[in-house]
Write a structure and sequence with these properties.
The complex is a heterodimer of chains A (about 150) and B (about 160). Helices cover about 30% and strands about 20% of the residues of chain A. By secondary structure, chain A is α+β, with helices and mostly antiparallel strands. A three-stranded mixed sheet of chain A has the order 1-2-5. In chain A, strands 3-4 form a two-stranded antiparallel ribbon. The longest helix of chain A is centred in the first third of the chain and has 20 residues. Chain B has about 160 residues and is an alpha+beta fold. Helices cover about 35% and strands about 15% of the residues of chain B. Chain B has five helices and five strands, in the order ββαβββαααα. A five-stranded mixed sheet of chain B has the order 2-1-5-3-4, sandwiched between helices. In chain B, a hairpin with a 2-residue loop joins strand 1 and strand 2. In chain B, helix 2 packs across helix 5. The longest helix of chain B has 17 residues. Classes of the chains: A alpha+beta (about 150), B alpha+beta (about 160). Chains A and B meet through helix 1 of A and helix 4 and helix 5 of B.
Chain lengths: ~150, ~160
């Protein structure tokens, strides 16, 4: 399976906060047997990956997870999803699959993190290479770029 | 199973019932242990996710944080509540027709909250829906479909 994502973001350079305003997900999944479910799978997978991209991080201290709750480990809610989200399956046929299908599920996850990181780079010129792309990470990178890095 | 320490009486989905409960039980434990109702599910146990939503005296509460003892004398309604006449109500139909779930774990909470939203605001905007349902989490992230389902349910209700 192949998946690709395009992202449009807004970056608040004062706080580092990133808002994903548009997310376009496309995948080659063979022939979509149930197009509605395919779209729901692509969209759901992309939003789940958006959580890993923007906020979800397990914190460990002395081998123990210190944020094992939904209060401290934030997964996307309704207010965290982009207002513009589009999902599409490319025309394809998998000869060896049932009715030409390959399968869909997490195909929507593949491109999300690099697409958002690339969009941030395009917007404010900082390249982040580890997840999640939190406001703190973006702000630290912006300060470093200005030659005035934050001291821990 | 914990030792029973008191008996409470309340209305469950319109019927007068009584239940023997332990004092530390929450409403989810009450519904599951005494009545075999599994529509309200405990997920986070912190009131963060909305999966355990039930209506107590007409208001949505987190069943995981609401002590069963406080249900004494109350009117408790769950997603299992039979709907008048029809087998499904407009909200349930709209969720099915819009494909507004994948695994379905969070769906009872979303259905109850959507009914409450549409009772308060019969024609909500996208923004109204997003804010009203922001306390319900869906790990499968069927959020765009849920927003569509709420709007479809509003249309169905207006036609009935």
């Amino acid at each position: 399976m192949t998946g690709a994502t395009g992202a449009e973001v807004e970056v608040d350079t004062e706080t580092g906060r990133v808002t994903v305003t548009r997310l376009v997900n496309v995948a080659d999944l063979g022939r979509p047997i149930n197009p509605d479910i395919v779209e729901s799978q692509l969209s759901g997978a992309a939003i789940m990956q958006l959580g890993f991209t923007m906020s979800e991080k397990m914190e460990f201290s002395a081998g123990a997870c210190t944020n094992p709750s939904l209060a401290d480990y934030k997964i996307p809610g309704m207010l965290d999803i982009p207002t513009g989200i589009e999902n599409e399956a490319v025309d394809a046929e998998q000869g060896s699959g049932p009715f030409g299908a390959k399968g869909v599920g997490e195909s929507g996850t593949f491109g999300v993190s690099p697409a958002v990181a690339n969009a941030i780079d395009d917007a404010v010129g900082v390249r982040l290479t580890s997840l999640p792309l939190t406001a703190e990470a973006v702000y630290r990178a912006l300060r470093e770029k200005q030659g005035n890095p934050l001291i821990d | 199973m914990s030792s029973v320490q008191r008996t409470i009486q309340f209305k469950l989905n319109g019927e007068a019932v009584s239940a023997d409960i332990a004092p530390h039980w929450n409403v989810v434990e009450l519904l599951q242990n005494c009545f075999g109702l599994f529509g309200a599910r405990e997920s986070c146990g912190q009131g963060m996710c909305g999966c355990c939503t039930v209506l107590v005296n007409g208001t949505a509460v987190s069943g995981c944080l609401y002590l069963a003892a406080f249900a004494e004398g109350a009117d408790v309604r769950t997603v299992e509540q039979p709907t008048a006449g029809a087998s499904l109500d407009a909200v349930q139909e709209a969720f099915i027709e819009s494909g507004a779930f994948q695994c379905g774990f969070c769906t009872p909470g979303f259905v109850l909250m959507t009914r409450q939203l549409l009772d308060e605001n019969p024609s909500p905007t996208d923004n109204d829906i997003r804010h009203y349902l922001s306390g319900n989490l869906c790990r499968c992230a069927a959020y765009p479909e849920i927003i569509a389902a709420v709007k479809l349910a509003a249309q169905k209700r207006a036609r009935r």
